[in-house]
TrEMBL record:
Protein name, entry field: PTS EIIB type-2 domain-containing protein
Record-level GO BP terms: phosphoenolpyruvate-dependent sugar phosphotransferase system
Any Pfam family matching the protein: PTS_IIB
Residue span(s) of domain PTS EIIB type-2: 1-91
Cited InterPro entries: PTS_EIIB-like_sf (IPR036095), PTS_EIIB_2 (IPR013011), PTS_EIIB_2/3 (IPR003501)
Keyword set, alphabetical order: Transferase
Source organism phylogeny: Bacteria, Bacillati, Bacillota, Bacilli, Lactobacillales
GO molecular function: protein-N(PI)-phosphohistidine-sugar phosphotransferase activity
Amino acid sequence: MQILTVCGAGVGTSLMEKMFAEQILSAAGINATVDNADITSATPDDYDIVLTTSTFADMLPASSATIIVQDNIMDRNALQTKLLAAVATVED
């Protein structure tokens, strides 16, 4: 499973989302690669899931990837719920 986190510069929000996603996936025993990128170099079609904020979700090119919008990046419970649900959908 390939997951991409995206923000404006690729070093702030997306890096935090990447670390949180890796922790959530590891705790759930899910094997996935999580990358982060800035909005201008994001390539959603290379990934199964893309995690970003609503600001950048509308800027992503059309893709078959599952898009998770998470505006409050510090809400790890919401992120866990959304991420695990997306993973289950992708794996089906």
